[in-house]
Structure formats: C-alpha cells, structure tokens
Specification:
The protein is built from 13 helices and 14 strands. 35% of the residues lie in helices and 17% in strands. The chain starts with 12 loop residues before the first strand and ends with a helix.
C-alpha cells in the first residue's frame, strides 16, 4: 500500500526508520504529510520506551565507537551474570527487546537520527564518546548534528550520570555544560582506568582505549566490581568490520575496518598500524581525509576506489604512493612482500552497496591469493622479519 493510501485519519504517530529523513535535506513525502497533519513522527525506540520497561537504561552515542562500546558493555554485563538486553542501532530493534526487569539493564546504541525522534528517552546513564562531522546533510550542518547528539544528555533522569569522552572539543564543552546543570559527570580517560581495562586485547588503538574507559565507567556505575569488569573485557572478541584482523598469512595481516566510513574513523585505524597498504574510497563525506593526514606516514600505498577517487588522490598525492585498485595483480603481491605489512580496508567514505563488495571481494580474494603462494616464499619473507 502506498503511503498516500494509509488511513491517515486514524494514525496517532508515524514511525520512521533512521534512514528516512523527516527534516533535512528534504523530508520524505510521508513525513511531510504527517507533519502537515500534526501527526507525531517517532522512532521505533520511542515505541519501546513508551512500553515503560522496568530495567535501567543506558544510552551510548558518538560519531565513532558507539557500536563497540555498546557491545562491550553488554558482553561484560552478560559475563557477570546480569540480566541485559542490547539493541537499538546495533543488533535487534529496541522495540523487539525483552525487558530484563528492575534488576536488569537495557543497553541502547542510538544514532543522531534516533535521538531526535525519541522524545520519551530518559536514561539512567548517557554516554557521548565523541562528535566529529558526519551526516551533516541530515542535520543542516554541524550545529544540528551536535544538538541531536546532545539529546542523550538533556534526556537524562534527574539522578542520571553523563559519561563523556575527551577526544574532541565538542564533547569537552558538553562536559562543562553537564556540570553547570548539576549532572553527575564522569570523563572517559584511558590512563585513569584500572590496568585490566587498559588492556582489552581485542581493542587496538587509542580510540578503543577511550571506548574501553567509557565502558568501564558505565559498568562501575551499574555495580560491577573491578574483577568482573576486567574479566569481561579480557574475553571480549570485538565486532566484525571494526579493526578486525580477518587473517594473518606469513608477515601480512589483513584488517577489515570497513565501518570506518568517515575521515576521523579512518584516521584512528591508520594510526593503529604501520606499513599499511590501504584500500579507501567511495562517496566522500564532509571531513574528507584531513584527520588521516597526520598519520599518513604509516601508509606505504593507497588503493583508491569509488566516486571520491579524485579528491582522495589530491589528498594523498604529496604523501603516499597511490593507484586505482588493481589489487590482485602479481606486481602488487611483489610490492607487498615486505616484513610486517598490513592490508587494511578503511574506506573513510560512505558506501551504499560497496561495503559488502569490499569485504567479500577485496579481503577474501586477497587472503585467498596470498594463501595460495608457495610456502617457501613466505619462509623467505619471514626470515627477514
């Protein structure tokens, strides 16, 4: 049934998926029609909250790192034997989660899209990891994007706790604003976390140290002791597509960070490795590659794809060799035969159907190609390491 044929006179609310614009850059016709009829526009998360779950609610947001942090919190709670449900922008829809009850916890990852369409939000704990340029077309600029993320904090219960990263000025300003409002405010500072929480083996990179620090604070606020938190973090396997080492063949590591769909996320990936052969490209976002450039020394060669090829070439030209993606040719293999090399997919851009293509084609074919090389060739390379 087309939206024009819906029984609009009987509708109390229009529930939209996060990908449907209701304000910017132009509202979906159904959303515009609902607004004209004063019909409320909400998210599926709002449906879940209107059911009045008894569990405590933790909301985790940020431009980057929110999925990893959400999964880490959920994993540690589960390992500690706590009743927990995890969902929202990760895994199951919030409205499909079972209420764990008054002694349980609902951990929600929420995007900026979800935050601006969830008026009933009232979390016990709200985490904002970072805010860097992303989805600016959907929020009419950076101010609108920051305002959407800030909803996680303004919705806090009176006795709630704000947990904030410290990697960018936007979130630092939010910390000051929370304190001014009398909100209990904790800062996720990796160096101040207990030693066990600084060594979450599956989480590589400084950005993940901050994610782990934020998760540790959440878990402490929920009543877990240091040993429970350390045990949970030590057993966390990480998430697919986020600095995921999918194979190690000889001296070469194959790393899938295809969730790095903006420059800031790609920068964190590039900063975490050296001798990188980097696959990047797609539809460029607002932040471009500026954040990557301080770490570009870690990149030996860039293989560029998609519509952003020209701007990426301009960004990389002065610093690193680059080419179009002739990644499986034998000359490429010979270039790659050097000690401790990393083949990384961290595209720094947005893709529609290309992430699946990248993951299944580039990494899988690369692993298969290198795995088929004669063992003697690997032994020769490994002898030089």
């Amino acid at each position: 049934m087309a939206w024009q044929d819906w029984p609009w006179q009987d509708l109390n609310a229009l529930v939209i998926s996060p990908g449907i614009p209701h304000l910017h850059p132009a509202p979906h016709p159904a959303a515009a029609h609902a607004a004209a009829k004063n019909i409320e526009i909400i998210s599926e998360v709002e449906i879940a909250l209107r059911a009045a779950p008894q569990a405590r609610i933790v909301v985790i947001t940020g431009t980057n790192g929110k999925s990893t942090t959400t999964a880490l919190v959920g994993h540690c709670l589960q390992q500690a034997g706590k009743a927990v449900a995890v969902g929202g922008n990760i895994g199951r829809a919030a409205c499909l989660l079972d209420d764990p009850g008054p002694d349980g916890v609902i951990v929600l990852e929420l995007s900026s899209y979800q935050l601006e369409t969830t008026p009933a939000l009232s979390p016990t704990i709200a985490v904002v990891l970072n805010i860097t340029p992303d989805h600016l077309d959907r929020h009419a600029g950076m101010a609108g994007y920051v305002a959407a993320k800030t909803r996680a904090l303004s919705a806090l219960r009176a006795d709630g706790t704000a947990i904030l990263g410290q990697s960018d000025d936007h979130v630092k300003q939010l910390a000051n604003a929370c304190r001014d409002r009398g909100i209990r405010t904790l800062l996720a500072i990796p160096d101040e976390a207990p030693a066990g929480q600084q060594n979450c083996l599956a989480l590589r990179g400084d950005h993940n140290a901050e994610n782990a620090a934020a998760a540790g604070l959440v878990l402490h606020c929920l009543g877990l002791d240091v040993d429970q938190i350390d045990h949970g973090m030590a057993s966390f396997a990480g998430l697919p597509h986020r600095l995921q080492t999918v194979a190690t063949i000889g001296p070469i590591s194959f790393v899938n960070d295809s969730k790095a769909t903006n420059g800031t996320a790609a920068a964190k990936a590039v900063a975490a490795f050296s001798h990188i052969y980097w696959v990047a490209g797609g539809l460029a976002k607002e932040d471009g590659l500026d954040a990557v450039m301080p770490h570009i020394r870690n990149v030996e060669k860039a293989y560029l794809i998609g519509t952003s090829l020209t701007p990426l070439l301009k960004s990389c030209a002065a610093s690193v060799m680059q080419t179009s993606i002739t990644i499986f040719m034998k000359p490429y293999m010979r270039h790659l035969m050097m000690p401790k090399t990393t083949l990384m997919v961290a595209q720094s851009c947005w893709h529609l159907q290309q992430p699946r293509l990248i993951n299944s084609t580039i990494l899988v074919r690369a692993v298969m190609s290198f795995a088929s090389l004669p063992k003697a060739m690997w032994q020769k390379v490994e002898a030089d390491v």
